[in-house]
Amino acid sequence: MNEAEGHSDNAHNQIIEGILCPICKSDLKTVEKLMIHVETLHSERSQGIGNDYDHKKYFNLIRNPILERHATQTNTLIIRLNKLLENRPRPSQIADRKQHDQKIVPWLDEKNVHLCPECAKKFNIMRGKHHCRLCGSVLCESCSHFLEIEDAKILIGQHEEENQTKQVKHDEEPDTLRTCEHCMRLLLNRKDIIETRVATHPIKKYYEKVQEIRKEIEPEIPIYNKIINSLYEGDSIYTIQDASALRGKILREAERIDDISKRILAIASPQGSREESLKKAIRLSMIRYIKEQLMNIPEIPLEDEIKKLQTKRTQELKQRIERERRLALEAYERYELHSTNNDTIKSSPASKKGSAVRTVDN
């Protein structure tokens, strides 16, 4: 009996390797054979093997009270912070500021606190006692945190209303609020949430930059076309330098748009997501815009070609002036001839006789 039990214990403690059946410990060599083995020989006992259990309900049961407690504590701190900033005395008015802070948040009696709750070190002459302005707890200087007033205004929503900050004199302390580790952590978490909500997505930021460039450069294109047409017509109002400077500006802005659209395409996003499709659509749209609107502007004529055009233009103007002068002279000569003929007819004898006859008849 003892030998059988010893043999059984040795078999039980033996290390077996391979793709084993969890029920009979047989080595099936492959996963496919293991699945067939379990389904055929252990179908009744395999129902509890490999089940998935959802712990989300248990997770929420633990997590939700913590979130609610943190939210309640944070909202309480925001309310206190708002009251502390109302009619707050200047940093130089130490006594008034201390009285103001204690009126908003009652301070814990420091006589009953002998150890710093943060570092657990004993208070003494070198390690003085201080109070958190938001919860009133006692802490030492090393464990104190200081909340900037500008950050406090962001938390209570007054940062945008007061764009101009007050200048602090050199002999005054910076305008801050002393807080403990716990209060500071809650406020910084809320600040991160606020900044995340108002933060601009990189795609939107880059796209708005592209729109600004387009708004700036599009009015320049008709002006450039006007300059080029003037040069091809032989006018001397504009020069090649004017056209070259404006063309260079347009092409530089085209390079900027191309670079920004590449940056948009390089932003990390999940494969196959709407964000990925949006990036590709913006990139294709910018390529089409650059090709059809910015790179399609006419070339600047060569200097020799402009000189020929200007010479031709000058000759045409001279010929037109000469033609108009000749036509005007011919018209003037016809007018003089017509006037001379009329005077001759009026001064002839027949004309006088006819006039006399008309007088007698009358």
UniProtKB/TrEMBL annotation:
<dbReference type="InterPro" id="IPR011011">
    <property type="entry name" value="Znf_FYVE_PHD"/>
</dbReference>
<feature type="compositionally biased region" description="Polar residues">
    <location>
        <begin position="340"/>
        <end position="350"/>
    </location>
</feature>
<dbReference type="InterPro" id="IPR000306">
    <property type="entry name" value="Znf_FYVE"/>
</dbReference>
<keyword id="KW-0863">Zinc-finger</keyword>
<keyword id="KW-0479">Metal-binding</keyword>
<dbReference type="GO" id="GO:0008270">
    <property type="term" value="F:zinc ion binding"/>
</dbReference>
<dbReference type="InterPro" id="IPR013087">
    <property type="entry name" value="Znf_C2H2_type"/>
</dbReference>
<keyword id="KW-0862">Zinc</keyword>
<dbReference type="InterPro" id="IPR013083">
    <property type="entry name" value="Znf_RING/FYVE/PHD"/>
</dbReference>
<dbReference type="Pfam" id="PF01363">
    <property type="entry name" value="FYVE"/>
</dbReference>
<protein>
    <submittedName>
        <fullName>CSON006457 protein</fullName>
    </submittedName>
</protein>
<feature type="domain" description="FYVE-type">
    <location>
        <begin position="110"/>
        <end position="188"/>
    </location>
</feature>
<dbReference type="InterPro" id="IPR052727">
    <property type="entry name" value="Rab4/Rab5_effector"/>
</dbReference>
<dbReference type="InterPro" id="IPR017455">
    <property type="entry name" value="Znf_FYVE-rel"/>
</dbReference>
<feature type="region of interest" description="Disordered">
    <location>
        <begin position="340"/>
        <end position="362"/>
    </location>
</feature>
